[in-house]
Amino acid sequence: MTSEAGEWFGVQCAETPIRYNKCSAKPVTENGSRLTVGACVPPPTLRPVADFTDDAVLVKALAARDPEAFAYLLDRYHPALVRLAQQYVPNRAVAEEVVQETWLAVIEGIDRFEQRSSVKTWLFRILINIARSRGVQERRSIPFATAATLDDDEPSVDPRRFRRLSRSARGQWKRPPNPWGNPEQRALDGEALETIRAAVDRLPPDQREVITMRDLLDWTAAEVCDALDVTDANQRVLLHRARSKVRGALERHYDHRREL
Fold first, then answer.
1. pLDDT, one tens digit for every residue, the chain (260 residues)
2. Separation between Cα atoms, residue 88 and residue 148, nearest integer Å
3. What span, in angstroms and rounded, lies between the C-alpha atoms of 181 and 192?
4. CA distance linking residue 26 with residue 203, whole number of Å
5. Which domains can be identified in the chain, with CATH numbers?
6. Residue 186: which residues within 8 A CB-CB, separation 6 or more?
7. Separation CA 27–CA 29 (nearest Å)
8. Which residues contact 49 (CB under 8 A, 6 or more apart)?
9. Helix, strand, or coil here: 11?
């Protein structure tokens, strides 16, 4: 769109380039001569851009079946939905099917959405429920209960790595982790990334859910608690145990490479 002192909109009519005077609403050619009424099409009415970051605006647009609202959701959440779905089912192809079912459920259920949670939380709850069901169908053990149970006797780190007999040194490292050198560079190591993926995949389902949301999808603790219906204390313990196990797998990976 062209403008002259904020007064003109560019319009093409037949083969004659014309301008449309916003103030007088009379079309004129480039040399200033008047055109007859009906000789051109008035400028299009510009649709205001909706702020879909506002949940109230987004829900209203989704309920009206606004394609731009659905496009916004797809662009923003589809990759994260696929990534989370892969934690429940055997492969990416099945994960994509789970996400497609999720989008259909959103379309069918938006009129019943009461906005007691954010659209993001509602969307991912739908995915989790579908993915859990599909995971059971695919014979991968995923519990249906969202409230995770904690085994208080499960240590995050092997107790044998700490001093226990000496009062002054009790709880200190007896065998501390070996230094990893440059952590940024090692994080780019393809073998290390594969080790992380395998370690996450071996985690108990409740720990796998939490570490995926917190560390892979960058969710806040409050968002995870809301989506999984767990307490903050529960979430913190699950995350700590998951991170400890992944770190242990990385440590073994680097120790093995050091021995080669």
1. 444 433 333 344 444 444 544 444 455 555 555 544 444 555 556 566 778 899 999 999 999 999 999 999 999 999 999 999 998 888 899 999 999 999 999 999 999 999 889 999 999 999 999 999 998 887 644 444 444 444 545 555 666 655 665 666 565 666 666 665 566 555 556 777 888 889 998 999 899 999 999 998 999 999 999 999 899 999 999 999 999 999 888 888 877 666 65
2. 16
3. 14
4. 70
5. 1-46 (no CATH), 55-137 (1.10.1740.10), 183-259 (1.10.10.10)
6. 180, 192, 254
7. 7
8. none
9. strand
Q: What amino acid is encoded at 73 in this protein?
A: L
CB-side exposure of 170: number of CA atoms within 13 Å?
5
Pair of tokens at residue 114: 């009461």
C-beta separation of 70 from 84 below 8 A: no
